[in-house]
Fold each of these.
Amino acid sequence: MRAAVERLAASKEVAIVSGRSRQKVEDFVRLTSLFYAGSHGFDIAGPDGLRHRIGEEALPTLAAARDALQARVASIPGASVEDNQFSVSVHWRNVPEALRGEVEAATRAEVEARHGLKMTTGKCVFEVRPELPGAPVWHKGAAVRFLLDYLINARRAHGLAGHEVEDEVVPIYIGDDVTDEDAFAALHGLGGLSFLVAGAGESERPRETYGSHVLADSDEVQALLHALAAF
């Protein structure tokens, strides 16, 4: 998969948008030519020196919630807490079904006990993220819009396109998580394509989605990346 991404990035602008921290994703992928949006887009960096961070004022509160959650779920088999810097992920995939409600209740309690945080859900995970009063809602979809605006303005600044550059850009987003729906929705009306990667048994009957297309698995994702690179 990494080779397919690297090949695509040789001729196209490529961004990885993840719920994990930006640094974790960069360290894993190890491709310096990409844009990276970590923590659901709260921390964005690019190969040209771009840095955009949202919600830094919430970091101490997130750290306190992380520590409290680690203590609260330590006795629940299979539960784990992941620090993603601008978000905290509480994983319950390996938690016995009868105990999953305890994980949700613990997460909700710690969020409600603190100002400036909100709880969302993903694939077998509860997410704790900053909630910024008076600021636009920030998520993967907002990050995608930010990156599109940034790249379009950069092309204009370098004289690579005219004022109708939006018509020359076809954004494509691939994702498999519930949190990717924000990005799928963001592409509506932008002439983009969005691909839901369906889980096992979902390829013919995927969940309700804003995605415009469905891919069955990572093999189909890789084939699509190679096809786009050749286009």
Amino acid sequence: MGAIMDTDLIWQHIDEQRLELAALIETLTPAQLATPSLCDAWTVRDVAVHLTHSHTSPSRAMLAACRYGFRFDTMIRELALRDHTSADEAAATLRAMVGSRRHPIGTTPMAPLLDSLLHGQDITVPLAIDRTMPHDAATACAAYLWSTGFPFHARRRNAGRRFVATDSGFAVGEGEVVEAPIRDIVMLFGGRSSAAGVLAPSL
């Protein structure tokens, strides 16, 4: 499994991803923004708006959790759908978030790093835009996904398989060996099996 990443480096990657995503979002046409993303029920615009929600205050997050009966997937989905922020406004907010170390209540800095990598793919894959993942950040995210349960349960869903990254030192699991780029492994572990390159859907 990949090495644990230094916290300062995690935030450096988050800042870089936010700046890159802001620049990308500003180039998208209305038709591209209305394209269905890899996230169920969300368009590309909705994903862009969701990326700004990691700065939601703890009090607002708790109010939203109560409103949706602590059904967190529903809460996250509906907050993005009901947020009428424009794509340009979302891009500006992402830029304004650079340098901040705030992350969602109850999470670690790995959460916004994973969000930026996965949601970057949720935006670009449907638009046929090839977006790379920094290998060290992707390796850290793959290790994080494998070692945590909720919400993706990567270890349980991929029992009986050993994943070996072809472009980093990442390797986890036991059983049938699956070799793939680290980006595809992160996508699979993060529930994007349909877009995870040559990897078979998780079990």
Amino acid sequence: MASLAACVLLTLAAGCAGAPPRSFAAPGWFAMAPTREVVRVRGWPSGPMPLSFAIKAGGTVYASGLAGFDMRAKRLVPGGVAAETAQALRNLEEVMTAAGGSLHGVAGCSVLLRNMSRDFQAMNRAYAAFWPEEPPSRVAVQVGALQGEASVEIQCTAAMPGYGRSVVHVPGIPELKGFPLSLGVQADGMVYASGMQGMDIPTKRLVDGGAAAETKKTLENIDAILKAAGSGLDRSVSCEVSLRSMGDFGAMNAAYSAFWQQGGYPSRVAVQVADLAGKAAVEIRCLAAGQGLRREVVSVPGWPGLHGFPLSMGTVAGEVVYASGMQGMDMQAGKLVPGGVAEETRQALENARAVFAAAGARLEDALLCEVSLRDIKDVQAMNEAYARFWPKDPPARFCVQAAGLAGRAAVEVRCLGLRASVSGPGAAAEVLI
């Protein structure tokens, strides 16, 4: 008891090795306010992009997308995708060390490739060397374009030491040999499922029937992973849908909607990617609240219902808000705002702000944002509009060109953030005992 009391009396920004996961609660004993802390890496330059290299909140670290740049030499390493993958993960290791953690805590990664058919195997070999055992969950897709000349960008989320990171093993489903990923990982009260396709996993064969049948099988696979961790699709808070063709959007939606009761959908982002592994039409990754963690659905007062779109504007798990992907749409008028990517970015973030506010959060406390552009050439105009929302300590971020977005939008932004926080370096939470 004395050691735990000493731990909670320390500033939460400093962290404690024995700190409980966010799902821990002892009613009537003490309460902990989550903290939002910018992670800074000694010797790394502060770049022109409006992002932080990582944000730490409670027991979780949200890293920005990292490419194979030598951060001190300020150049892309030579040697192609294998060398870039290794450098990107060394960069991640530095971020985790600066946050007080390690690569062992990584729970989920997104690997974004410029060329899937050429680079997937070389990336996999380099990636596998960093997790010889119990790798994180993962999704890997080819995007429309990356910034600069990078062949790969990797974004990861990780648990701090003492926050319960463990691999999920699914009865009846063998591990994916040759793929350096775990089917699922539990960490800090959440369950991270890997990106799944409409595959019969034991035989590694895609189901017949196109996008609708693949979506159904994909979500059945994800549900099995989540249930093995004591959760389930009904407790999912966020899903990412990657489509080979936006022409399959309607068929995917129809199959997808059958897995949740009306009004109970997770938040969601759905984009067209340039390529998926194998011949799949769709790949989906979901994040779910674990046992004992409260899950809520967020609706925004005054906004019309999302008829035909099986998603919630936002969800909450514990004290983290997960907003759906937002476009630059006037939600009352139901149409995109005029003015191009800058105005659409501004409106998309105002929409995200409204979702956060409906959940009792502030956009200033965003932890991680994902920006999908129709054309990577718009990145500067997007950045100028985006930066106005975070003049100081912006969230972690990754930004790519999608192969396609729903409708005619130039940009889509998805953010997650803290509902209640004490922000800033060295911030301390008041602890009541």
Amino acid sequence: MAGAPVIGIDLGTSYSAAAVYRDGRAEIIPNKNGERLTPSYIFYDPSSLEVAVGTAADHLAMKCINNFIFDAKRIIGRKFDDAYVQKLKNRSEYKFKIVRGEDDKAEYEIKHGDLTVHISPEQACSEILKYLRESASDFLEAEVTEALISVPAHFSNAQRAATKTAAELAGLKVLKLISEPVAGAIYYTKEKRDIEGTFLVFDMGGGTLDVSIIVVSKKKFEVLSVEGDTFLGGRDYDNVLVDYFI
């Protein structure tokens, strides 16, 4: 291969994935374990701060549950005093600690020996992106350095900027941040042979819900309206069921 192609990345709340478009179709890139989806988990070893991502992080979680981080996408780009962060930080399933960090941003406090260390959501997300980049480089047999990354349609400018920072920390140049509903519409219309019209895109993820009205015409995609709920995702359904039955 003369050069590595640009990859597409879905940095998800619960799972993340990378794909490449070649030979006329999109192809999911398996990670280093051969998995098509990578759990969005990060574990920091309390002795060395060595990082494990995905399934490996899940297997190590009980070694130091306070250093097992997930749902980083939910607080990336947010201030500690954000009402959303305040609602999140006391959730019973979160064994990690969310604290006030630099510039009043929300950060994680993890253990390193007898000390505590702050990790930003950008740093945590960068570990997932780095893992996906390395997996893609191995799969494509070429160094991957550029990507398009999808983000929720309701993401603020601060959240989008923080996502780009995470990618840069992972060694990736972001060619474009694309709204998740638009990414879905592009794939759908491509599969339907360049169909045009007005579409309702219902995007239920692990941590958020986006509902968007998108107009597709002459290969242009225009988002007319977006509504969403940052506390309505698959993980929230899980929590409700657990609370009900236990």
